[in-house]
Amino acid sequence: MTRYVIIGAGAIGSAVGGCLAAAGRSAVLVGRQAHVDAVRSQGLRVRTPESDRRVPVEAVTGPDELRLTTDDVLVLSTKTHQAVTALAEWADADVVDPDSGERVGAAWERLPVCTALNGVTSESMALRYFTRVFAVCVWMPAVYLEPGEVIVRATPRRGIFHVGAYHRSGDETARQADATLLDTLRDDWRAADCEVVVTDEVMAWKYRKLLSNLGNSVQALVGEGDPAPVLAAADREARAVLEGCGIAYTDDATEQAARDDSFSVAPVAGEPDRLGGSSWQSLARGTGTIETDYLNGEIARLAREHGLAAPVNERLAALARTAAKQGTGPGSLSAEELAARLGL
After folding, report:
1. b/e string for 232-255 if b means 16 or more Cβ within 10 A?
2. Residues annotated as region Disordered (predicted)?
3. HEC-encoded secondary structure of 90-152
4. Rounded CA gap, 110 and 115, in Å?
5. In this structure, are 193 and 120 located in the same domain?
6. What sign for the dihedral angle of Cα 289, 66, 182, 35?
7. Residues 193 and 291 in one domain
8. To the nearest whole percent, how much of the chain has pLDDT over 70?
9. What is the pLDDT of residue 271?
10. How many CA atoms lie within 13 A of 289 on its CB side?
11. Residue 92 shares a structural domain with residue 184
12. 187 and 224 part of one domain
């Protein structure tokens, strides 16, 4: 049986791992000590619109606590700014034959890694460490605020994942191995109510998701008022940058059709109807870091690299970064205050 080693058991990682384990698939959560301790002692509490249950799932803090085998698939689900550290930690871990127990190589050469992160840079990061890298575009409204617990607000499916090979295999045998892996992942994740769409255009889906994720910083920063003008300005600017750089992204009609056929977001008992996304959660937990340098900041980087301008997105990245460093909670600005700081 394929085992999914989820590196980064935050909202998405815990949700995917919990859903897989609940469906009888093999999964391991790799997380911080407090989360791991809670999962080991009581199981992972998975709360959805329909249920609230504790799921037994293996949990570790790093590769020194786990024996990797050739049956494993690594799923990277950290924040992007944490990805390089995680990749370096796992790349050289020993891999053994599941039957003989003999070492057959290191993770970087023997195991595939799936990059289930926001943004569009983790794939190139991973390819510096691993031979086989599969990009994953994640649509999954999950929330992680307390150790040992994850909230998934999607129904009836828990998430939609566009997945495809980021690396290029050099021969037919390697390409067939990639296709077999994608078939297995699709079947296992579908059994866990996580729909997988295999596509050669996965990066176009991830760039379209990047446009949506530009609002993460706005959601994290704004507490009152209508942020629509700021969101529109950031989106308009980013589209101009992507088009100026010749970067393709999935068109709005195709994306909307896929979303219409995905899942509904529904309340979870005991929680507000609206809960924030990943950047909001970072400020709420006071982590001191935030991934918006790889969202709004990615647009700023592309603009600077190609002689274009992205003042709205570069300022949003700076404001979110400062809020995280200063320990400012979410919603510290009104929409009007944010617009003024952006010069809108």
Report:
1. ebbbebbeebbeeeeeebbeeeeb
2. 324-344
3. HHCCEEECCCCCCEEEEHHHHCCEEECCCCCCHHHHHHCCCCCEEEEEEECCEECCCCCEEEE
4. 16
5. yes
6. negative
7. no
8. 99
9. 82
10. 8
11. yes
12. no
Q: Residues 222-253: pLDDT tens digits? A: 999 999 999 999 999 999 999 999 999 999 99
Q: What is the CATH number of the domain that holds 122?
A: 3.40.50.720
CA-closest candidate to residue 231, choices 246, 218, 244: 218
Residues 117 and 211 in one domain: no
Q: Is the CA virtual torsion 151, 153, 159, 160 positive or negative?
A: negative
Amino acid identity for residue 104 in this structure: V
What is the b/e burial string over 142-173, where b = at least 16 CB atoms within 10 angstroms of the residue's CB? Answer: bbbeebbbbbbbbbebbbbbbbbbbbeeeeee
* CA 13, chain centre distance (Å): 8
Q: Environment class of residue 318 by beta-carbon count within 10 Å: exposed (0-12), middle (13-18) or buried (19+)?
A: middle
pLDDT at 130 over 90: yes
Structural domain for 301, as ranges: 205-341
292/298 Cα distance (integer angstroms): 8
> Which strand (E) or helix (H) includes residue 289?
none
State whether 47 and 147 are in the same domain: yes
108 shares its domain with 212 = no
- Nearest partner of 79 among 284, 282, 218, judged by Cα: 282
**Least confident stretch, 24-33, 35-44, 185-194, 281-290:** 281-290
Domain count, the chain: 2
HSE (side-chain half, CA atoms, 13 Å) at 191: 13
Name, in order, each residue with C-beta under 8 angstroms of 85's C-beta and a sequence gap of 6 or more.
Answer: none
Helix ranges (DSSP H) in the chain:
11-22, 33-42, 83-91, 107-110, 122-127, 172-191, 202-213, 215-221, 228-244, 252-260, 278-285, 296-305, 311-326, 335-341
pLDDT at 272 > cutoff 90: no
